[in-house]
Amino acid sequence: MKADDPLQVLKQRPKVLVVDDRQTERDIMQKLLSKLDVDVHTADSGQNALHQLIRHEYTLILLDIQMPIMDGIETARYIRTNPLTENIPIIFLTAYDKDDLNVLQGYKIGAIDYLIKPINEEILLSKVKTFMRSNVFEKQKEYEKILTELRLKNERLEKAEQEALVRLKEANLAKDVAQDAQQQLEEQKKELLRHTQNLEQFAYVATHDLRAPIINLDGMVKIFRKRGHVNGDNSDIFRRIELSISRVKNTLHDLIEVVTAKEAFEEEVEKLRFSDVFSDVLEDLEVQIKDSGASIHSDFSEAQSINYISRFLQSIMQNLLTNAIRYRSPERSALINVVTKQLSGSVLLTIKDNGIGMDESQKEKVFGLFQRLSKDAGGKGMGLYITKSQVEMCGGSIDFTSKPGEGTTFIIELPDMKRESDK
Amino acid sequence: MRSFQDVLCIDDDDEYNFLTQEAFYDYHYNGKLTFMTSAEEALDYLAELETFPDIIILDINMPAMNGWDFLEKYEEKGFHKRFSSLIFMHSSSVFETDKERAARFASVKGFIDKPILLEDLETISTTHFG
Question: Name one Pfam family in it (chain A) (predicted).
């Protein structure tokens, strides 16, 4: 049991200390006081009294004034100077009832009462009882106070505990909700992935299944013309049939590019000379370039080659060049400049035109799928989407600056895709 | 005298076969040109032959038995050891993975993108029969 347990101290019987240098006096006092419900301790000198006071907590001290060496007054003074004992009531015991000086001195140091020897039993017990009662009352009050405090503390603890429980429940609930949400999210993710895969599968099948009959149609029409069946009356409608087929063919070609832009193989990477790829592109666009009267200049002297995927580089250049021609200004002849610049680990490809330009705020749209900014230029809205996919697929980036009415400059950073094994 | 005189085309698409025929016509081909519209039919046909065609043009995408299945059976039957027909894979969309796959078959000599044109036949002639 802990000594500093306040309740334990309170439950003990009150202790009374009797200080007198004479054995007989002490015995008498002990005998008289034994009638009360108290523990009586005795000390035969002031010094011993002070010793006892260190070890025990006393409710009352009965102190003889006339003692050798250290008298009662001096003892009382010491008692009063110690903060632990200063409030213990003292009843002085004195043999001379006319000893006014002693009594006064006694009161000066804060004594509460005094008794004249020889001790009258009734008066002694009555006075001691009064002190005990007041002490018990004090103690009771203190006890209750402590009990109240304890009760309050307990209540607070209980409340805190309940709050903690509530919080815990809330936390658990939140956790459950979060887990549910997480699970739902995972399921949605899976669902989305399934949808995407289905869509990709669909696009793949649709484009490839469409391709075969279109190739047939295109071939048949060519044979028809070759055999000389196109003449006078039907030449106009036949030309329209050919145009329509050519449009379907081109759209399908682009759709397949969109579908396959997500597939790139390391084995496809090879060292490409910009001038070679570019002249292939110019050859493919020969008719368009001639019809538009565009003049195209290129300068690949700074960065002459790059390790890249041929079909991608060709497609990137072709798409951007086609756009530069398609969106040329009606007010001036088209001027297109294609330049490469060597960066560390990549090449900057710049394609600058003096065309109609576009609003830079439309950037999102420009690179979106099936987005066209102008309805009369004949685009299908896939070109830049494909280009962006092909650039980003290989870790590059594409951007442009443009001013309506002045022209557009596309800037593409192509990383040199040197194979790991070649490094 | 043209370099190849016996050609087998395996393709389920009749309309397309018409275009192939036209390409050979443009090439002024006057040898034997046979069409089979399924891989199974083609295998049966080959099994009966004393001498194999100079060239087999094989479509990849066919229902039931496709071009790859045909190649497996072709080797299973040991045709590739007995005869030296040159096989050309034919498709409207050739993928890198297809090329890797084809490398496993020694008889496969190349790919031809659809539609087959006069130029393709000239290239085959100069490359393999020059």
Answer: HATPase_c
